[in-house]
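ERR on first pass: missing label on line 2. Operator R.T. fixed the label and resubmitted. Corrected input:
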Amino acid sequence: METNSIQATDTEISATVISPAELLEHWQGHRKLSRKVIEAFPEEQLYAFSIGGMRPFAQLAMEMIGLAAPGIRGVAFGDWTFGEPQLDSQTPPPATKKELLDLWDLVTEYIDHIWPQIPAARFHEHDNAYGMYEGPIYSLFLYLVDNEIHHRGQGYVYLRALGIEPPAFWDR
Amino acid sequence: METNSIQATDTEISATVISPAELLEHWQGHRKLSRKVIEAFPEEQLYAFSIGGMRPFAQLAMEMIGLAAPGIRGVAFGDWTFGEPQLDSQTPPPATKKELLDLWDLVTEYIDHIWPQIPAARFHEHDNAYGMYEGPIYSLFLYLVDNEIHHRGQGYVYLRALGIEPPAFWDR
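pass 2 clean. output:
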């Protein structure tokens, strides 16, 4: 029985594009890189520098936090809110880079804690993310990650415009 | 037998984070948006405008093409090259926006043609992408998509700096 069970698991993984554990590693790898981009900004420019009327990177990073924290609860439990501290896509960034990074780390730990509780079948359930976006969970989740990559790429341009070398894209 | 087989397939999909067909749709959705970003640039700025010493968007878009075309062959067959026309990450963009978009469309059709030939188990095989990057196929493939989102996000900053409204991020 034990041998059969192990074989079944192997087959399942080999026929799967990506497992939940691999997807978590992928996401946290991206979040690690985004954290380095926050760190790369001088504090003043983090809050003040922008191009073409776009938001400063502190606000873009705060959007990542404000989507990720309720997002992991939504993906896992269907509850797209986060209460302590209250975080959503409209939450303004804290006043300092240190506090922003601390908030980032709190969410990182929270994600690691919640992720294993997501049932595999959950990724194909339909939900209404943040009360606004309808779709299957896998798609809503990828939107969250893609949105982070998109805004982080914008942070790279800000850093280059400031004469600062951004962290390597492949360095997760 | 037929009923059992249908049930097995349902279970398989419901326990899968994302199926190969869903992943193709996800990628082509992103590629559709990237094509709109190319279209949004005035031809001159597509080739000339840049910020902070970065590459103009024609070169960033050409990198997407030069990775996607051999990339889909690598993912499917383990052959990370593309021959007609010869395309790799170093291939310079064609001289006009029209030719760049035509090349984009050629790769779009090619991807749709090749994708169904990828065996599901392929995503967990290890390979050496472009003779340079070691890893499981799912990870190498996600890198390809993420790299496109990253550079496209940079194109959004270029457009904003030029006073041009970029296409909506969610519009795929």
